[in-house]
């Protein structure tokens, strides 16, 4: 029991010098990668840069205690930062103390919700975020995030958390470009792109080992930060109108729980829930992908508890909502992280950086951070999903398209809710108009298939219908129309066999429809039979009036049903005998 | 085309003297029944009594033109009256002109929505109101309606559209009972109950024919109205504090469309939608039940148009939302109504009654109308549904129970939305954790069933799993865990056959899960086969990477899959050969 809540008790016991070595190497590399990302994502969330660093300390320790993934690297991520900005941007102005404390409350709320969902084992809720929806959402978020940084790269003001406002504010201010800012922005973009695409080959051509080259590439963004800080000081860019990060409080965060009002909690509850679910889905899918590569398993409900603890820790430690990041976790995995302890070592690294870096951050141009964000989110954009969904099914395409359009035009929260709503509605709509087939026997077998797709044998006077859906309230009336229509247009029919192999449940509404079908058929002198009724469905039907009054029989298999119906037609067997023989 | 929008063009052509006779008899009986009900339901809706009469004139004519049911009697009904009171009670005070015009706007809005739903053939939306939900809703509404009339029977004030407020206001005013009102109320209740339960036997014992006795019983409530009016005048009950109907404008309604604000439309849009759907479901189920008895068919989408036209007519003619009433339609049917023209004749009857009655209504005690309402709604209450649902399935029971509790405690709109929401959530939850079975062969057949329920034969090394649900986003991850778990606990397994007879669809999320299952199994040296994949599902799968990379085969039947897997195990057939033979 204790061990399932504290996985650290299991892996901690096996911890040895070799694991420590692997974890330390991974921690160093992730720390180097995380420093510029923490600063940049805090900026994206509209928060002071140190908040990003704070969000990369305690949450990592909390995840190390509760988490089940050895590779997951927790911290600020792009999508959740955008969602944070959208949620708290409505309640307070950026740069105010209220804004920062709203972010902290959001982290606490989201942490509390995640932990409760984990304790009550509600992880399945996340399954309702379908893959097309989450993929469309991340693509749209990536576009919004990249667009939101255009202002920072041009040195103009831009506002908004959805495309229409963002584009409007960019165009409104397009005349006020600061060319020094633009220069720093383009330089940063170019360097970061070159580092990502080309530096490694270049280093290897110069004879560096693969491992060393990899580490240098990953510390590239930190060098860009140092370079632009140096340029900023040398050319007094601040004096030339380039936006700099400005003074940042020194030292580590003071642990505290902000005092907050019920109004604030109410206003943030829904955004916190959406952030929790989106963050969980992103995190758990990275964790699962990486775990599968090592034949490990992660425990989704425990992951909820771990992410909950991480977010509560983020709130207490002055940070904002965090989750497992994709790129960062892959790096952590590649670098050899063997246990969640790697995350705790990363936290120590970030704490050290916070102490060392904060005095110098004042001169860092914000445009460098904007460039870091743009390069990081470009990998999120995947329009291929639209094409794959279109070619696979129009309903999946509808869900992706609605999610992307909704997120771009109306913002992250509305977008994801529309996407989930669409995918559920499409599922319900489809199941309310089920596919059905008249079936016949595949010659030489006991197998029965759709007469329209296979060359099958049917028996005149016996109509076999296979309905391809569970029978429930939404399709109950449809079923009545279907069977009534088929029988009315085939006057020679004396027996209807409803093949139930694809009927996984029958609810009360459908049971009433079946009874009314039985009555209608009975009035027309037609007997209704069932075949291949599944165990769980049969358990329900036993003892119902419908079954007691059924003139026909319930047959184990469709083949048996057809044999019996044929025999009974030949013998002109009265319904009473059939009733007596019923199951 | 024209004929499908105007069914009157079809039945009007066949209209003859005999049909006219039947329709006229039915119209007289329904008119007599409708007069007290119109007055009473208007009171229930918080409207002046003449509004009830107005709602029983033009809407009936409109339905006669557009309707497809020969027996449906349209007009004010109890549940919709309660819903009207709840919707407009928030916006205006009873007795004001604003209140009445809000009711008219509600009728127009609801009429417009119904007509649009009919034109766009959206009748299937009503299928999402499951039978347990609508039944629970009507039971709870009946209880609320009966309780809301206690104040009228005691002569005290009572307010509210849900039980807590209603009971609170009754207890707050319980000391102010007017005993004259109570006397009239109890007398009316006793007479109405006696008329309903006993009068017919009594008349027949006195030698009256069955037909005459029936007509007298049905006009009973009108006699009670005349009797209490006479008592009211004789004993000057108005002067003794008994609430009377009071002055009513004479004559027929003036046709008009009220001028209304956008705010009003916005506030009434959601209630109008709920009233439309509930009214439609009630109406169409009565119409279908009665149509089936005469081997007729009604056209649900045309019914939407007809009810839409009826409600627009109600709005223009000074009425409030109407729909087809259950008891009234049964009476219409019994009395021999042969075409929708019977409704038009009823409208003439009510118009005549409006001209004749209005001068006398001033002296009618409201307690008589309260008694009429109580007697009428007692038949709506059906707690048996709770018991039937409990014994059939816990999920259906949950839907009924939530609907009843929600409606009683939180009101009609919240109640029905909670009920529909619960039934949909329960359906989604169930399909997110599908039933699955390991299957084996029923000896001597080609039929495969659950090893836990049947004595079946299995083949060592071959695991056949039947998943009883369409594979979609909500259960995709569950499927992965299921198959991975089964294979991991059976190390001797070399082949997994996924029997797809109950899989009616595979969406993109599930396809990705199948691919990841295939990969996992492949890593473990296990081949994945599919069997009994339905045509529509196979159409999707063809051309996907999953199918192209599948090591196993797709077999027409489970039996064939087992034969092939056995043969291939014996031959030690390499996966490449299986790939070549696929499909």
UniProtKB/TrEMBL annotation, chains A, B:
NCBIfam families in alphabetical order: sulP
Alphabetical list of SUPFAM superfamilies matching this protein: SpoIIaa-like (SSF52091)
UniProt source species: Paradevosia shaoguanensis
A GO term from the CC aspect: membrane
Entry keyword set: Membrane, Transmembrane, Transmembrane helix
Protein name: Sulfate permease
Region (Disordered): 561-583
Gene3D superfamilies per record: STAS domain
